[in-house]
Amino acid sequence: MASSLALIIILGLSADYLFRRIKLPGLVGMLIIGVLAGPYVLGLMSPEMMKVSADFRRIALIVILLRAGFELRRDALKRVGRAAVIMSTVPAIFEIAGVMLVAPRLLHMTYLEAAILGSILAAVSPAVVVPLMIDFMDRGRGSKKGIPTMVLGASSLDDVFVIVLFTVFLSMYGGDQTSIFWQLSKIPISVVLGIIVGLIPGYFLYRLFEKYDWRPPKRTILVMGVAIILTWIESICEHYVPIASLLGVMAVGFIILEKSEPIAHLISQKLKKLWIFAELLLFALVGAQVNIHVAWKAGLAGTLVIFIGLVFRSVGTYVSLFGTPFDWKEKLFCVVAYIPKATVQAAIGAIPLAAGVVSGEVILAVAVLSIILTAPIGAIGIMIFGERILDFGELSTYRFKELREKLALPHVGERVRSKHSGKVWKVIEQKEVWMEDPATTDDPDAAPGVFPAIYLRYWGEETSNEIGKGKTISFYYSQKEPSFQDHWEILYDW
């Protein structure tokens, strides 16, 4: 298995580099590497690696969903909450209807089997969509209207909705007498319980981090451990009560961000570094699950069913955005962002075949084909349309995030020690400010310019028992004055 991991790292990073050089998303290259190295093409991955593939993929998905939670701000969610809820249901219903309309004739299956197929195809892939949306959020793209936040939230809810519908249709096929209304009621129940089981441990983690000033890597490891336990709780309780644990994972990050932005930022930065390896695992192993021989059997008819389903889905997505402040270009971006399929199709595509559905083999073939067609096309489309359509103001807050990361500045509440005097100070205030560039203000012929800077005020803990009283000092930090590391070091208890 160690050699398979080495193979994923070397080939995945190489593919990521090559695809980025030709202005395409690196994840597309990782997917292709996974397909080629997987057991259905070259067979370079060991059987042991494929056995633990599902666990590795889940852990990688947890990393990116935690990062998503640490980027979800309450004000942004309020702006796009209604649209996100509508987008999590309407497009999927449209796509299922489109598949049910054409699949019986093209693939020679019953309407119920077509509904099962449609519910598999209707799930958007968080593995593809979430990383791209976080990249836009990190760079301040679409921040004015909160479009990446909306797509991120909607894609996570979409999976919960679609998987419940899949369960309903499969139960109907097997003659299960369980009430359909009870099955559908699992949607809001699983969403609410998922959020609750995330908020509660998230709050206790916040209180723990407030009391004990641990180093960021230890905080990050603990958050990861709690998030993994949440998914374990879902598997234990699935026979008794539905829990959308992946929403709970996002809720952990959300509540920590809500209670303490400095702590959330530090953990998010460590997760960002961890994602480099997790991304390789996720997309390479998703690709390795793709059986291109099975996909080939779907043929032209399967491709046509997928295409018609996407057309219906696109109409549903556009309809979902009626009444929002988005213009037609931004709505078009949302349509494209809802194209990729991968995670859910790889996870549940083979279940109908195992359950004895007559058209199970055809359903699996079309599900696999949908990954091959839509994951790369959707990822490329998101990158191209996002760069051209999403707003990006000249004074974007992203520049402050970039500056803070480069200079490794502390946040409010953290303690620092002076390298010259050895005295300990506490950060009690911070501001993000735009400063005039003296190089342009002194030159009458130069265009006026500004640059981002971060103002920090320190309080001497030894000068007073009451925060803010006693001696305080303040400094401005920027690319022109990157002096923090020369004079200070951040202190942690553990």
Q: Could you please describe the fold and organization of this structure?
A:
There is one protein chain. The protein has helices at 2-21, 26-37, 47-51, 53-69, 74-87, 90-107, 111-121, 126-138, 147-173, 180-211, 216-237, 245-259, 261-288, 292-320, 328-337, 343-348, 351-354, 360-389, 398-407, 438-441, 484-487; strands spanning 415-418, 424-436, 450-460, 472-477, 488-491. It folds into two domains: 2-389, Up-down Bundle (Na+/H+ antiporter like fold); 398-491, SH3 type barrels (Roll), CATH 2.30.30.30. The protein is elongated, with a radius of gyration of 25 Å. It has a five-stranded antiparallel beta sheet with strand order 4-3-2-1-5. It is built from 21 helices and five strands. By secondary structure, the protein is of the alpha+beta class. The longest helix is centred in the middle third of the chain and has 32 residues, at 180-211. Helix 4 runs parallel beside helix 12, helix 8 runs antiparallel to helix 9 and helix 11 (216-237) runs antiparallel to helix 12 (245-259). The two termini are 34 Å apart. The mean pLDDT is 82. Strand 1 and strand 2 (424-436) form a beta hairpin.
Sequence of strands across the biggest β-sheet: 4-3-2-1-5
What count of helical segments does DSSP give?
21
Round the mean pLDDT to the nearest integer and report it.
Answer: 82
Classification by helices and strands? alpha+beta
Q: Compute the number of strand runs.
A: 5
The main pleated sheet reads as: 5 strands, antiparallel
CATH topology of the largest domain: Na+/H+ antiporter like fold
| Integer tally of domains | 2
| Radius of gyration (Å) | 25 Å
Question: Per CATH, which architecture of the largest domain?
Answer: Up-down Bundle
For the terminal residues, how far apart are their CA atoms? 34 Å
Shape: elongated
Provide the β-strand percentage band.
5-15%
